[in-house]
Amino acid sequence: MLIAATLAIFVAMFLAILRGIVGPTFYDRILAVNMFGTKTVLLIALLGFVMGRPEFLDIAIVYALINFISVIGVLRYSDSKEFKHDNGSIEKEL
Amino acid sequence: MDLLITIFSSLFLLIGSFLCISGGVGILRFPDFYTRMHAVGITDTLGAGLILIALMLLSTDFFVFTKLCMILLLTLLIGPTTSHVLAKAAMHNGLNPKFNMDIDEQEDEKEMGSSNS
Predict the structure, then answer these.
(1) Where exactly are the structural domains of chain B?
(2) Which residue of B58, B73, B78 to mutate against A (max A Cβ within 10 Å)?
(3) Which residues from A are below 8 Å from B29, CB to CB?
(4) pTM of the complete model
(5) Containing domain of residue A30, as a range?
């Protein structure tokens, strides 16, 4: 059952990275990266139990903190010009 | 007692992995940024919580249990915070939600057809 959950998380990570590559807006990519980071934490914790080495949980804690800091750090600059969203151009692209 | 722990941890793992996959399908298939964020925000928190609770049931060491509790608390704090900040930044920078998807798509198709003809 642990291995099945690991495979399910692999599938979810694959779908998230697809949205990160395709994603029409900038915010879709940030959302995909955030989801990928959360799934990485779960994957590391599960792999530690599968391989019988629960010391991996320390790495999982560090990954959760890095994920949070990275998303907040990117959105710290959301006042800048590159983050402005132009609705018209995106809808034409779609 | 052992059997009960196995059954409950397997059940939580199954539900959690189902929620993770449904979050992945949601982020890929939903039409709008805000609906995608809804799918990811809900399934991330609940799926991660269920999988971590299942690992807690499987853990034998006290330190492992404590570390899993810390990861669960961090996930429960971080997920809603990042969702809130992301939605606020997107709304503030003028990314509007889409309304009436069907009508929009039909109009787009009409425009495409008229421009082609």
Answers:
(1) 2-116
(2) B78
(3) none
(4) 0.82
(5) 2-79
